[in-house]
């Protein structure tokens, strides 16, 4: 029980720090790249509440990630790891490896929540927030013992397919979505990226239909598909 309480406290501390840093980072990008925002007039009000919203989201997700991690189970005296399809489930059972998986999982959650917020609010995913995520994805391959070729292939194929879709649909899929899928390929590999893309595309289609039926969107309006992929990827990672 004491180990779990320590895990919750660590998650709360990380959540507050992540929320504050994430909110300031979003505010910085909103000010620096105002021309790419879809709703610049709402940006100031949105930034003011970002830190609190992010802290709350991170609090829930970080607690779940830490409490279900193989690393915490090691110290709680629970041998073995539960069956999981998460890309962050360690197969080795060593303390060091489980800790590495937990660290990368928390980073994965941090960035995907950022993208979800900015894409929902302003229909934009900033390159300056994607680059460090891509670098961490590359670093995760050797450190977590992942197959380099499969993950690079997933990134290349994801980028190529979604770039073609963006071209054929005349921008219905934005450049940020194309780059997001490519970077997710680095983190997830071909099989799990395919799962995220298929489920995310279905969710995106359903969400777009609901928005059209409720007249919150009109035909030809831009729709943010990014959150459909990020939410599915988060669910996959935290299972």
Please explain how this structure is put together.
- This protein is mainly alpha-helical and about 240 residues long.
- The chain has one domain (about 1-239).
- It has helices at about 1-30, 45-65, 70-75, 95-120, 125-145, 150-170, 175-215, 225-239.
- Helix 4 runs antiparallel to helix 5.
- The two termini are about 20 Å apart.
- The mean pLDDT is about 85.
Key phrases:
single chain, 239 residues, mainly alpha, 75% helix, 0% strand
Give the total of domains.
Answer: 1
Give the end-to-end Cα distance, rounded to a whole number of Å. Answer: 22 Å
Range of helix content: over 70%
For the largest beta-sheet, the strand count, sense and barrel status come to: none
Overview in brief:
The chain has 239 residues and is an all-alpha fold. The chain contains eight helices and no strands.
Write the layout of secondary structure elements.
Layout: H1 2-32, H2 43-67, H3 70-75, H4 95-122, H5 127-143, H6 148-168, H7 175-213, H8 226-238
Helix pairs in contact: 1-2, 2-4, 4-5, 4-8, 5-7, 6-7, 7-8
